Protein backbone atom coordinates (compact mmCIF):
# COMPACT_ATOMS: atom_id res chain seq x y z
CA UNK A 1 0.00 0.00 0.00
CA UNK A 2 1.88 3.06 -1.28
CA UNK A 3 -0.12 5.66 0.60
CA UNK A 4 1.38 9.11 1.00
CA UNK A 5 0.03 9.56 4.51
CA UNK A 6 0.04 6.12 6.08
CA UNK A 7 3.28 6.76 7.95
CA UNK A 8 2.34 5.39 11.32
CA UNK A 9 -0.61 3.69 12.95
CA UNK A 10 -1.02 5.74 16.05
CA UNK A 11 1.70 8.37 15.88
CA UNK A 12 2.87 8.13 19.39
CA UNK A 13 4.83 5.05 20.19
CA UNK A 14 8.27 3.63 19.28
CA UNK A 15 11.03 0.80 19.00
CA UNK A 16 14.38 -0.93 17.49
CA UNK A 17 17.07 -3.60 17.34
CA UNK A 18 20.78 -2.91 17.05
CA UNK A 19 24.32 -4.05 16.61
CA UNK A 20 27.13 -2.88 18.85
CA UNK A 21 30.81 -2.21 18.53
CA UNK A 22 33.10 -1.66 21.50
CA UNK A 23 36.56 -0.21 21.12
CA UNK A 24 37.98 -2.18 24.03
CA UNK A 25 41.43 -0.63 23.96
CA UNK A 26 40.09 2.80 24.79
CA UNK A 27 37.07 1.61 26.76
CA UNK A 28 35.01 3.86 24.49
CA UNK A 29 32.16 3.18 22.13
CA UNK A 30 32.62 4.01 18.48
CA UNK A 31 29.88 3.10 16.07
CA UNK A 32 28.30 4.99 13.21
CA UNK A 33 25.02 3.25 14.00
CA UNK A 34 23.86 1.94 17.39
CA UNK A 35 26.10 1.39 20.35
CA UNK A 36 25.28 -0.94 23.21
CA UNK A 37 27.40 -1.54 26.29
CA UNK A 38 28.67 -5.06 26.87
CA UNK A 39 28.17 -4.48 30.60
CA UNK A 40 24.89 -2.53 30.63
CA UNK A 41 24.58 0.23 33.17
CA UNK A 42 20.83 -0.32 33.18
CA UNK A 43 18.63 -3.32 33.81
CA UNK A 44 15.00 -3.68 32.78
CA UNK A 45 12.23 -4.15 35.33
CA UNK A 46 8.80 -4.79 33.81
CA UNK A 47 5.92 -3.80 36.08
CA UNK A 48 3.12 -4.58 33.61
CA UNK A 49 3.01 -6.96 30.65
CA UNK A 50 -0.72 -7.38 30.04
CA UNK A 51 -1.84 -3.88 29.06
CA UNK A 52 -3.19 -4.17 25.49
CA UNK A 53 -1.85 -1.48 23.22
CA UNK A 54 0.15 0.38 25.89
CA UNK A 55 0.68 3.87 24.49
CA UNK A 56 1.73 6.91 26.56
CA UNK A 57 3.21 7.08 30.05
CA UNK A 58 3.54 10.17 32.27
CA UNK A 59 4.26 10.64 35.97
CA UNK A 60 2.88 12.81 38.74
CA UNK A 61 1.79 12.81 42.36
CA UNK A 62 -1.84 11.70 42.24
CA UNK A 63 -2.24 10.06 45.64
CA UNK A 64 -1.01 12.89 47.88
CA UNK A 65 2.13 11.15 48.98
CA UNK A 66 5.79 12.01 48.59
CA UNK A 67 6.42 10.14 45.36
CA UNK A 68 5.04 9.89 41.88
CA UNK A 69 2.52 7.56 40.38
CA UNK A 70 2.67 6.49 36.74
CA UNK A 71 -0.28 7.13 34.43
CA UNK A 72 -0.44 5.00 31.29
CA UNK A 73 -2.89 5.15 28.41
CA UNK A 74 -3.56 2.08 26.27
CA UNK A 75 -5.46 1.64 23.04
CA UNK A 76 -6.67 -1.95 23.29
CA UNK A 77 -6.29 -4.77 20.79
CA UNK A 78 -5.97 -3.90 17.12
CA UNK A 79 -7.60 -6.12 14.52
CA UNK A 80 -7.26 -6.47 10.76
CA UNK A 81 -10.08 -5.93 8.30
CA UNK A 82 -10.52 -5.99 4.52
CA UNK A 83 -9.24 -2.42 4.23
CA UNK A 84 -6.42 -2.70 6.74
CA UNK A 85 -6.02 -2.17 10.47
CA UNK A 86 -9.21 -1.62 12.45
CA UNK A 87 -8.70 0.53 15.55
CA UNK A 88 -10.43 -0.64 18.73
CA UNK A 89 -13.51 1.26 19.77
CA UNK A 90 -12.17 2.06 23.24
CA UNK A 91 -9.03 2.02 25.33
CA UNK A 92 -8.23 2.74 28.96
CA UNK A 93 -6.09 4.86 31.27
CA UNK A 94 -4.46 3.28 34.31
CA UNK A 95 -2.66 4.71 37.34
CA UNK A 96 0.17 2.66 38.87
CA UNK A 97 0.96 3.27 42.53
CA UNK A 98 4.12 1.95 44.19
CA UNK A 99 3.07 -0.94 46.44
CA UNK A 100 5.86 -0.21 48.90
CA UNK A 101 4.62 2.05 51.69
CA UNK A 102 6.60 5.02 52.89
CA UNK A 103 9.21 6.98 51.00
CA UNK A 104 12.55 5.94 52.40
CA UNK A 105 15.60 6.34 50.18
CA UNK A 106 16.37 3.36 47.92
CA UNK A 107 12.90 1.93 48.34
CA UNK A 108 11.66 -0.92 46.19
CA UNK A 109 10.19 -0.14 42.79
CA UNK A 110 9.41 -3.66 41.59
CA UNK A 111 5.71 -3.83 42.59
CA UNK A 112 3.05 -1.37 41.45
CA UNK A 113 -0.69 -1.48 42.08
CA UNK A 114 -2.97 -0.54 39.15
CA UNK A 115 -6.07 1.62 39.51
CA UNK A 116 -8.34 2.26 36.55
CA UNK A 117 -8.92 5.92 35.77
CA UNK A 118 -10.68 5.42 32.42
CA UNK A 119 -12.22 2.04 31.64
CA UNK A 120 -13.06 0.66 28.22
CA UNK A 121 -16.73 1.10 29.12
CA UNK A 122 -16.26 4.88 28.81
CA UNK A 123 -15.82 4.50 25.05
CA UNK A 124 -12.72 6.67 24.64
CA UNK A 125 -11.14 5.74 21.30
CA UNK A 126 -7.35 5.91 21.40
CA UNK A 127 -6.82 7.66 24.75
CA UNK A 128 -3.59 9.52 24.08
CA UNK A 129 -1.06 11.32 26.27
CA UNK A 130 -2.58 12.22 29.66
CA UNK A 131 -1.89 15.53 31.38
CA UNK A 132 -1.95 15.77 35.17
CA UNK A 133 -3.36 19.08 36.44
CA UNK A 134 -5.65 20.58 39.07
CA UNK A 135 -8.44 21.26 36.61
CA UNK A 136 -11.17 22.46 39.00
CA UNK A 137 -8.77 24.27 41.36
CA UNK A 138 -9.62 22.12 44.38
CA UNK A 139 -5.96 21.56 45.24
CA UNK A 140 -5.82 17.98 44.03
CA UNK A 141 -4.46 16.56 40.81
CA UNK A 142 -6.87 15.50 38.09
CA UNK A 143 -6.13 13.89 34.72
CA UNK A 144 -6.93 15.31 31.27
CA UNK A 145 -7.22 12.71 28.52
CA UNK A 146 -7.14 13.65 24.82
CA UNK A 147 -8.40 10.98 22.44
CA UNK A 148 -8.92 10.03 18.83
CA UNK A 149 -7.47 8.31 15.78
CA UNK A 150 -5.93 10.28 12.90
CA UNK A 151 -7.77 8.48 10.12
CA UNK A 152 -11.11 7.90 11.84
CA UNK A 153 -12.87 10.25 9.44
CA UNK A 154 -11.99 8.04 6.50
CA UNK A 155 -13.74 5.19 8.32
CA UNK A 156 -16.91 7.24 8.74
CA UNK A 157 -16.29 7.89 12.45
CA UNK A 158 -16.16 11.03 14.59
CA UNK A 159 -14.73 9.79 17.90
CA UNK A 160 -12.20 12.44 18.87
CA UNK A 161 -12.45 13.66 22.44
CA UNK A 162 -11.00 15.57 25.33
CA UNK A 163 -12.21 14.55 28.77
CA UNK A 164 -10.96 15.29 32.25
CA UNK A 165 -11.21 12.98 35.21
CA UNK A 166 -11.79 14.39 38.66
CA UNK A 167 -9.89 12.66 41.43
CA UNK A 168 -11.88 11.60 44.48
CA UNK A 169 -10.82 9.71 47.62
CA UNK A 170 -7.14 10.31 47.03
CA UNK A 171 -7.13 8.82 43.55
CA UNK A 172 -9.32 5.83 44.33
CA UNK A 173 -12.32 7.13 42.38
CA UNK A 174 -12.48 9.13 39.16
CA UNK A 175 -15.38 11.23 37.86
CA UNK A 176 -15.70 11.95 34.15
CA UNK A 177 -16.17 15.44 32.70
CA UNK A 178 -16.44 16.04 28.96
CA UNK A 179 -14.74 18.93 27.19
CA UNK A 180 -15.48 17.71 23.65
CA UNK A 181 -16.71 14.37 22.33
CA UNK A 182 -17.75 12.95 18.94
CA UNK A 183 -15.29 15.24 17.24
CA UNK A 184 -13.99 14.68 13.69
CA UNK A 185 -10.60 15.73 15.05
CA UNK A 186 -8.24 13.53 17.01
CA UNK A 187 -6.39 15.08 19.95
CA UNK A 188 -3.05 13.69 21.12
CA UNK A 189 -1.89 16.06 23.84
CA UNK A 190 -3.22 19.06 25.72
CA UNK A 191 -1.75 22.13 27.36
CA UNK A 192 -3.43 23.44 30.51
CA UNK A 193 -2.57 27.06 31.22
CA UNK A 194 -3.80 30.61 30.65
CA UNK A 195 -3.56 31.36 26.93
CA UNK A 196 -6.09 34.18 26.60
CA UNK A 197 -4.90 36.50 29.36
CA UNK A 198 -7.83 36.22 31.77
CA UNK A 199 -5.81 34.52 34.53
CA UNK A 200 -7.91 31.35 34.16
CA UNK A 201 -6.41 28.17 32.80
CA UNK A 202 -7.58 26.97 29.41
CA UNK A 203 -7.07 23.80 27.39
CA UNK A 204 -5.16 24.04 24.11
CA UNK A 205 -4.70 21.14 21.70
CA UNK A 206 -4.13 20.50 18.02
CA UNK A 207 -7.05 18.82 16.30
CA UNK A 208 -5.88 16.49 13.54
CA UNK A 209 -8.18 15.09 10.89
CA UNK A 210 -5.92 13.31 8.44
CA UNK A 211 -8.75 12.34 6.11
CA UNK A 212 -7.97 9.45 3.80
CA UNK A 213 -4.59 7.76 4.17
CA UNK A 214 -4.21 7.76 0.39
CA UNK A 215 -4.86 11.49 -0.07
CA UNK A 216 -2.06 13.82 1.05
CA UNK A 217 -4.09 16.95 0.36
CA UNK A 218 -7.18 16.48 2.53
CA UNK A 219 -5.60 17.00 5.97
CA UNK A 220 -7.36 19.45 8.27
CA UNK A 221 -5.08 20.49 11.15
CA UNK A 222 -6.14 23.22 13.58
CA UNK A 223 -4.89 24.68 16.85
CA UNK A 224 -7.88 24.75 19.22
CA UNK A 225 -8.52 26.73 22.40
CA UNK A 226 -11.11 25.58 24.93
CA UNK A 227 -11.47 28.56 27.29
CA UNK A 228 -11.82 27.62 30.97
CA UNK A 229 -13.95 29.21 33.69
CA UNK A 230 -11.82 28.06 36.64
CA UNK A 231 -14.41 25.54 37.83
CA UNK A 232 -13.65 22.73 35.41
CA UNK A 233 -15.93 23.91 32.61
CA UNK A 234 -14.72 24.78 29.13
CA UNK A 235 -16.18 26.55 26.12
CA UNK A 236 -16.45 25.04 22.67
CA UNK A 237 -13.31 25.03 20.55
CA UNK A 238 -12.07 28.26 19.02
CA UNK A 239 -9.55 27.86 16.19
CA UNK A 240 -6.43 29.90 16.96
CA UNK A 241 -4.44 28.93 13.88
CA UNK A 242 -3.96 26.17 11.33
CA UNK A 243 -1.20 23.59 11.46
CA UNK A 244 0.87 22.23 14.31
CA UNK A 245 1.00 18.64 15.46
CA UNK A 246 0.28 16.07 18.09
CA UNK A 247 2.66 16.74 20.97
CA UNK A 248 2.72 20.33 22.22
CA UNK A 249 4.83 22.42 24.59
CA UNK A 250 3.86 25.72 26.26
CA UNK A 251 6.81 28.12 26.50
CA UNK A 252 7.38 31.87 26.44
CA UNK A 253 9.63 31.76 23.38
CA UNK A 254 10.07 35.52 22.91
CA UNK A 255 10.04 36.39 26.62
CA UNK A 256 7.16 38.84 26.40
CA UNK A 257 5.33 37.37 29.39
CA UNK A 258 2.80 35.47 27.30
CA UNK A 259 2.80 31.72 26.78
CA UNK A 260 3.49 30.62 23.23
CA UNK A 261 3.01 27.12 21.80
CA UNK A 262 5.80 25.02 20.27
CA UNK A 263 4.92 22.07 18.06
CA UNK A 264 6.12 19.53 15.52
CA UNK A 265 4.21 19.20 12.25
CA UNK A 266 3.51 15.76 10.83
CA UNK A 267 0.43 16.11 8.64
CA UNK A 268 -0.35 18.78 6.09
CA UNK A 269 2.05 20.58 3.76
CA UNK A 270 5.14 19.17 5.49
CA UNK A 271 4.44 15.86 3.74
CA UNK A 272 5.45 17.49 0.46
CA UNK A 273 8.44 19.32 1.94
CA UNK A 274 11.02 17.68 -0.39
CA UNK A 275 9.20 19.03 -3.46
CA UNK A 276 9.25 22.63 -2.21
CA UNK A 277 12.43 24.63 -2.93
CA UNK A 278 14.16 25.48 0.34
CA UNK A 279 13.81 29.20 -0.30
CA UNK A 280 10.05 28.77 -0.72
CA UNK A 281 9.43 26.76 2.44
CA UNK A 282 7.47 28.51 5.15
CA UNK A 283 5.76 27.78 8.45
CA UNK A 284 3.09 25.68 6.74
CA UNK A 285 5.65 23.24 5.31
CA UNK A 286 8.04 23.42 8.28
CA UNK A 287 8.94 20.39 10.37
CA UNK A 288 8.78 22.35 13.63
CA UNK A 289 6.97 25.60 14.43
CA UNK A 290 5.99 27.92 17.23
CA UNK A 291 2.80 29.89 17.57
CA UNK A 292 3.39 33.39 18.93
CA UNK A 293 0.76 34.56 21.39
CA UNK A 294 -0.01 38.11 20.27
CA UNK A 295 -2.06 38.84 23.39
CA UNK A 296 -5.19 39.82 21.48
CA UNK A 297 -6.51 36.31 20.90
CA UNK A 298 -4.41 35.79 17.78
CA UNK A 299 -1.53 33.36 17.39
CA UNK A 300 1.02 33.71 14.56
CA UNK A 301 2.92 30.66 13.32
CA UNK A 302 6.70 30.83 12.77
CA UNK A 303 8.98 28.17 11.31
CA UNK A 304 11.71 26.67 13.51
CA UNK A 305 13.17 24.09 11.11
CA UNK A 306 12.27 23.46 7.46
CA UNK A 307 14.50 20.55 6.37
CA UNK A 308 13.81 17.70 8.78
CA UNK A 309 10.78 16.07 7.14
CA UNK A 310 7.69 15.20 9.21
CA UNK A 311 8.22 16.24 12.83
CA UNK A 312 7.30 14.17 15.86
CA UNK A 313 8.43 15.93 19.04
CA UNK A 314 10.25 19.05 20.23
CA UNK A 315 10.90 19.89 23.91
CA UNK A 316 13.02 22.51 25.73
CA UNK A 317 16.01 21.56 27.88
CA UNK A 318 17.42 24.18 30.22
CA UNK A 319 21.23 24.19 30.36
CA UNK A 320 21.51 21.21 28.00
CA UNK A 321 25.22 21.74 27.34
CA UNK A 322 26.11 23.22 30.72
CA UNK A 323 26.38 26.80 29.43
CA UNK A 324 23.10 28.11 30.81
CA UNK A 325 21.40 28.20 27.41
CA UNK A 326 17.99 26.61 26.89
CA UNK A 327 18.06 24.48 23.77
CA UNK A 328 15.38 22.31 22.21
CA UNK A 329 15.73 18.63 21.41
CA UNK A 330 13.54 17.24 18.66
CA UNK A 331 12.81 14.16 16.58
CA UNK A 332 11.57 13.76 13.06
CA UNK A 333 9.59 10.66 12.08
CA UNK A 334 10.80 8.97 8.90
CA UNK A 335 11.62 5.56 7.45
CA UNK A 336 14.81 4.79 5.54
CA UNK A 337 13.28 1.60 4.10
CA UNK A 338 10.73 3.28 1.84
CA UNK A 339 12.16 3.70 -1.66
CA UNK A 340 9.64 5.99 -3.34
CA UNK A 341 8.99 9.72 -2.83
CA UNK A 342 8.28 11.65 -0.80
CA UNK A 343 9.36 9.16 1.89
CA UNK A 344 12.65 8.32 0.18
CA UNK A 345 13.49 12.04 0.08
CA UNK A 346 13.04 12.70 3.80
CA UNK A 347 16.09 12.85 6.08
CA UNK A 348 16.71 9.61 7.90
CA UNK A 349 15.45 9.18 11.49
CA UNK A 350 17.29 11.76 13.58
CA UNK A 351 17.44 13.50 16.94
CA UNK A 352 18.08 17.22 16.51
CA UNK A 353 19.09 20.16 18.67
CA UNK A 354 17.55 23.58 17.92
CA UNK A 355 18.81 26.86 19.39
CA UNK A 356 16.87 30.11 18.94
CA UNK A 357 18.86 33.07 17.70
CA UNK A 358 18.58 36.71 18.64
CA UNK A 359 15.49 37.00 16.43
CA UNK A 360 13.38 34.04 17.50
CA UNK A 361 11.04 34.60 14.55
CA UNK A 362 13.78 33.52 12.16
CA UNK A 363 14.81 29.89 11.65
CA UNK A 364 16.64 28.44 14.63
CA UNK A 365 20.11 26.99 14.31
CA UNK A 366 20.06 23.20 14.09
CA UNK A 367 22.49 20.39 14.90
CA UNK A 368 22.10 16.64 14.46
CA UNK A 369 22.71 14.89 17.78
CA UNK A 370 22.30 11.31 16.55
CA UNK A 371 24.38 9.56 13.90
CA UNK A 372 23.29 7.90 10.66
CA UNK A 373 21.83 4.48 11.36
CA UNK A 374 21.07 5.08 15.04
CA UNK A 375 17.37 4.32 14.56
CA UNK A 376 16.90 1.67 11.83
CA UNK A 377 13.19 1.18 11.21
CA UNK A 378 11.71 -2.30 10.99
CA UNK A 379 9.11 -2.49 8.23
CA UNK A 380 7.85 -0.21 5.50
CA UNK A 381 4.96 2.21 5.12
CA UNK A 382 3.19 2.72 8.42
CA UNK A 383 6.38 2.60 10.50
CA UNK A 384 8.80 5.42 11.29
CA UNK A 385 11.36 6.57 13.86
CA UNK A 386 12.29 7.98 16.27
CA UNK A 387 9.54 8.83 18.75
CA UNK A 388 9.24 10.99 21.85
CA UNK A 389 12.23 11.99 23.97
CA UNK A 390 13.18 13.48 27.33
CA UNK A 391 16.36 14.83 28.91
CA UNK A 392 18.00 14.10 32.26
CA UNK A 393 21.19 12.94 33.93
CA UNK A 394 21.46 9.22 33.18
CA UNK A 395 24.98 7.96 33.93
CA UNK A 396 26.34 9.82 36.95
CA UNK A 397 28.73 12.19 35.17
CA UNK A 398 26.64 15.30 35.83
CA UNK A 399 25.93 16.01 32.16
CA UNK A 400 22.43 16.04 30.70
CA UNK A 401 21.66 12.99 28.57
CA UNK A 402 18.63 12.07 26.45
CA UNK A 403 16.27 9.09 26.48
CA UNK A 404 14.39 8.44 23.26
CA UNK A 405 11.84 5.98 21.97
CA UNK A 406 12.79 4.23 18.78
CA UNK A 407 9.11 3.83 17.85
CA UNK A 408 9.27 1.94 14.53
CA UNK A 409 12.92 1.16 15.24
CA UNK A 410 11.65 -1.36 17.78
CA UNK A 411 13.75 -0.52 20.83
CA UNK A 412 14.46 2.21 23.38
CA UNK A 413 17.64 4.24 23.71
CA UNK A 414 19.63 6.66 25.74
CA UNK A 415 22.02 9.20 24.27
CA UNK A 416 25.06 9.90 26.40
CA UNK A 417 26.41 13.43 26.34
CA UNK A 418 30.18 13.42 26.03
CA UNK A 419 32.54 16.04 27.44
CA UNK A 420 32.64 17.88 24.11
CA UNK A 421 28.86 18.28 23.92
CA UNK A 422 28.38 15.55 21.34
CA UNK A 423 26.14 12.55 21.96
CA UNK A 424 26.48 8.78 21.51
CA UNK A 425 23.37 6.63 21.10
CA UNK A 426 23.13 3.42 23.12
CA UNK A 427 20.30 0.93 23.09
CA UNK A 428 18.98 0.14 26.55
CA UNK A 429 19.54 -3.51 27.48
CA UNK A 430 16.76 -6.02 27.01
CA UNK A 431 14.82 -3.68 24.75
CA UNK A 432 14.91 -5.64 21.51
CA UNK A 433 11.39 -5.63 20.04
CA UNK A 434 10.26 -3.15 22.69
CA UNK A 435 8.61 -1.33 19.84
CA UNK A 436 6.33 1.67 19.48
CA UNK A 437 7.32 2.79 22.94
CA UNK A 438 5.61 5.60 24.81
CA UNK A 439 7.36 7.87 27.26
CA UNK A 440 10.06 8.28 28.28
CA UNK A 441 9.71 9.48 31.84
CA UNK A 442 13.05 10.28 33.51
CA UNK A 443 12.69 10.41 37.28
CA UNK A 444 14.22 9.20 40.54
CA UNK A 445 11.31 7.00 41.62
CA UNK A 446 12.73 5.91 44.99
CA UNK A 447 15.05 8.68 46.24
CA UNK A 448 18.09 6.63 45.34
CA UNK A 449 19.96 9.60 43.91
CA UNK A 450 19.83 8.16 40.39
CA UNK A 451 17.20 8.55 37.73
CA UNK A 452 15.17 5.71 36.30
CA UNK A 453 13.81 5.65 32.73
CA UNK A 454 10.23 4.53 32.17
CA UNK A 455 8.81 3.44 28.81
CA UNK A 456 5.62 1.71 27.75
CA UNK A 457 5.51 -0.55 24.68
CA UNK A 458 2.58 -0.98 22.33
CA UNK A 459 4.24 -4.03 20.79
CA UNK A 460 4.77 -5.81 24.12
CA UNK A 461 1.69 -4.50 26.00
CA UNK A 462 4.17 -3.54 28.68
CA UNK A 463 5.33 -0.85 31.08
CA UNK A 464 8.99 -1.14 32.07
CA UNK A 465 11.50 0.68 34.22
CA UNK A 466 15.20 0.78 33.38
CA UNK A 467 17.22 1.25 36.55
CA UNK A 468 20.92 1.32 37.40
Report what the structure shows.
With 468 residues, this protein is mainly β. It has strands spanning 22-23, 28-29, 43-48, 54-60, 69-74, 79-81, 84-86, 92-98, 112-118, 131-133, 142-147, 160-168, 173-183, 186-187, 191-193, 202-209, 220-226, 238-242, 249-251, 260-264, 288-293, 299-305, 311-317, 327-332, 351-355, 365-368, 389-392, 401-405, 412-417, 423-427, 437-443, 452-457, 462-467. Strands 14, 15, 16, 17 and 18 form a 5-stranded antiparallel beta sheet that branches. A 4-stranded antiparallel beta sheet has the order 3-33-32-31, with no helix packed on it. Strands 4-5-8-9 form a 4-stranded antiparallel beta sheet, with no helix packed on it. The protein is globular.
Keywords summarizing the entry:
468 residues; mainly beta; five-stranded antiparallel beta sheet; four-stranded antiparallel beta sheet; 33 strands; 0% helix; 38% strand; disordered N terminus
- Going by helix content, strand content and strand pairing, the class is mainly beta
Percent of residues in beta strands:
35-45%
Shape: globular
Major β-sheet profile: 5 strands, antiparallel
Tally the helices.
Answer: 0
Count the strands?
33
Distance N to C terminus: 43 Å
Q: Could you tell me the mean pLDDT?
A: 90
Identify low-pLDDT runs. 1-40
Radius of gyration: 21 Å
Estimate the helix proportion, in percent. under 10%
Amino acid sequence: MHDLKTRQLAGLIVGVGCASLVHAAELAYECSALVEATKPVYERLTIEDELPGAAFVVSGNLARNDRSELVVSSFGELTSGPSGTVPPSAGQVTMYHNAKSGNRPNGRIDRWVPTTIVSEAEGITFPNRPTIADVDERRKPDVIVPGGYFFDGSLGNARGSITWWESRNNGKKWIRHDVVTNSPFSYHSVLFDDFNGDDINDIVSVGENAGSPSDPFDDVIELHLFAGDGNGNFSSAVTLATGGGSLLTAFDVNRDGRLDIVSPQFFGSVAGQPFIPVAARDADSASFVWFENMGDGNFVKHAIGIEQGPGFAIVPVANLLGDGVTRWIATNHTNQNVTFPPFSLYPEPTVYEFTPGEDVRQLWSVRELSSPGDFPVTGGIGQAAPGFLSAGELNGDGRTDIAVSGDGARGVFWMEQLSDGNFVTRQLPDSEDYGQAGGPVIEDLNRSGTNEIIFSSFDQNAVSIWRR
